[in-house]
């Protein structure tokens, strides 16, 4: 979230259609924003899944961005077309991966809410 949210003008970002995600590789709990070799590995994995990788963009290098185009353009999307979504059978581990991802996400949310509560309590205590 430290990076610009979208490179596209209104109605053109794949994020608005649920067709894009932004990721950051983590090593020992630390985001690896500047690890180019690691970004390359992550990008190649995404491309093997058929996603377009923002790490290939010349105008705005965005290695954390992946999107599914399904062969249709941003204009077509804005005009109401939607690309076909691949069947999960094509990705045998998808459900397993989604389960792991959901668990990691929940753990992260709990951690974040604990952190923000600690910060809030800290600042309140500091005001007294
Ligand atoms: Zn993005």
SSE topology:
Layout: E1 20-22, E2 26-27, E3 30-31, H1 36-48, E4 52-53, E5 65-67, H2 74-78, H3 94-127
Antiparallel strand pairs: 1-5, 2-3, 4-5
Cα-to-Cα separation, first versus last residue: 32 Å
Present as ligands are: zinc ion
Instruction: Return the structural class.
Output: mainly alpha
Strand order of the largest sheet: 1-5-4
CATH architecture of the largest domain: 2-Layer Sandwich
Number of strands: 5
Q: What is the CATH C-level name of the largest domain?
A: Alpha Beta
What are the main properties of this structure?
128 residues, two-stranded antiparallel ribbon, mainly alpha, 3 helices, Muramoyl-pentapeptide Carboxypeptidase, domain 2
Description:
This protein is mainly α and 128 residues long. It folds into two domains: 1-86, Muramoyl-pentapeptide Carboxypeptidase, domain 2; 87-128. It has helices at residues 36-48, 74-78, 94-127, and strands spanning 20-22, 26-27, 30-31, 52-53, 65-67. It has a three-stranded antiparallel sheet with strand order 1-5-4, covered by helices on one side. Strands 2-3 form a two-stranded antiparallel ribbon. Mean pLDDT is 81; it is low at 1-6. The site of zinc ion has 4 residues, from strand 1.
Structure, briefly:
Helices cover 41% and strands 9% of the residues. With 128 residues, the chain is mainly alpha-helical.
């Amino acid at each position: 979230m430290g990076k610009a949210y979208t490179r596209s003008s209104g109605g053109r970002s794949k994020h608005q259609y649920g067709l894009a995600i932004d990721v950051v590789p983590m090593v020992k709990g630390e985001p690896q924003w500047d690890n180019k070799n690691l970004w390359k590995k992550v990008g190649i994995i995404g491309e093997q899944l058929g996603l377009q990788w923002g790490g290939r963009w010349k105008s705005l290098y965005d290695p954390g961005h992946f999107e599914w185009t399904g062969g249709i353009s941003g204009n077509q999307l804005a005009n109401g077309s939607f690309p076909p979504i691949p069947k999960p059978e094509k990705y045998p581990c998808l459900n397993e991966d989604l389960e792991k991802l959901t668990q990691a996400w929940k753990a992260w949310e709990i951690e974040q809410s604990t952190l923000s509560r600690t910060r809030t309590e800290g600042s309140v205590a500091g005001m007294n």
